Amino acid sequence: MNGSIRNIYCAGPLFNDAEKNEMKEISTVLKQHGFTVFLPHEDGLELAAYSQWLDRGSKILSNDIDKGIFALDVYLVTEWCDGIVVNLNGRVPDEGALVEAAIAWSRAKAIVIYKNDSRVLLPSGENPLVSGLSKFEIVKRIDQIPNAMEHALQQKNIDRQNQINIGKVIFDFVSEDTPQTERFAELEILLERLFGSGA
After folding, report:
1. pTM assigned to the model
2. Is 87 helix (H, G, I), strand (E, B) or coil?
3. CA distance 165 to 119
4. Would you call 14 exposed, middle or buried from its count of C-beta atoms within 10 A (0-12, 13-18, 19+)?
5. Side-chain-side CA neighbours of residue 112 (13 Å)
6. β-strands 83-87, 110-114: how paired?
7. Model confidence over 37-65: pLDDT tens digits?
């Protein structure tokens, strides 16, 4: 590492022991590489942990716990962390983790997506609005996460503005009056020019 402490938020599913253990493994490998890590079910407010307490007649309402969780996570993602690791494993990605990732991207934080689950939404892979958050790079092994995070931390601001600029060019193209179905050849040329990935 560059001699500086980097704060990393770990986002992902936490609904059973297997998921919690996998998130713990991600946290552990990051800590072993010198990162400071926030793991929600160990370091924050976990709704499931408070359910029995709430059932015993606590004066705190579950809605207040919900508000506390939201406020804490928003602070951590927008202000505290330098980057976020998003665990996409599961039949569908955890919606809370996706919201945290979107907030992180909007704040130009470094994002690493981890997934070793073979289930995907689309034949081509993940939803592009998800995989695009990490420049379409998905880490498949936990031991690769620290290096991916170092790289993401170095590149975070460059890619975000570039994507906004490219999005503006594409918006101008799709905003023209001519139906898009009549302009596939033009679109192909435009995308090849923007991304350099022609066949």
Report:
1. 0.82
2. strand
3. 32
4. buried
5. 28
6. parallel
7. 999 888 876 655 555 555 555 656 667 77
